[in-house]
Amino acid sequence: MTSQQGSFSHLDAQGSAHMVDVSEKPVTRRVAEASCRVLLSAQTLVRLANLPKGDAFAVSRLAGIQAAKRTSELIPLAHPLPLDQVEIDVQPAAGGVEIRSRVVVTARTGAEMEALLACSTAALALYDMVKAIERGAVVTDLRLEAKSGGQRGPYRRSP
Questions:
Q1: Which stretches does DSSP call E strand in the chain?
Q2: How far is the CA of 32 from the CAs of 46, 59, 76, 107, in angstroms?
Q3: Is 128 a catalytic residue?
Q4: Neighbours of 10 (CB within 10 A)
Q5: Residue 140 CB: number of other CB atoms within 10 A?
Q6: Tens of pLDDT along 76-102?
Q7: Cα–Cα distance between 125 and 120 in angstroms, integer?
Q8: What is the reported pTM?
Q9: 12, 21, 89, 128: which is the annotated catalytic residue?
């Protein structure tokens, strides 16, 4: 099995999924950043800090942190990582809320999945907080923004 950049590391020669052996990789500091958006009406946006269920920003941040710590339980081929730091930023933005995550780990493999899962779970927690007042909320634009550390060098999404 190949992609445009070579073989898929999570597939063996027969095409079966397997956990990648990272034991030979050096332990380095790795940072991954991700983002997503939750589209909301202006009426909902002004109520986010004072919803019947509580402060949507605080709940969203905590859900994202918790999700990052549990990534290997939810993503079958992800390695359990000893996370050094997880930051979740939840901010009002045009048309809704922007969620950004930053995950730092000193390990043999990167934290991209942790950053992505942190954002998506923070967005879903926010959705859960607003669903009673806005059924049309939309989670969108989940993406890796940047990563550093590891063999392939740094990556930053083009603006």
A1: 2-3, 6-7, 28-39, 83-93, 96-107, 138-148, 155-156
A2: 30, 22, 19, 13
A3: yes
A4: 14
A5: 11
A6: 999 999 999 999 999 999 999 999 999
A7: 9
A8: 0.88
A9: 128
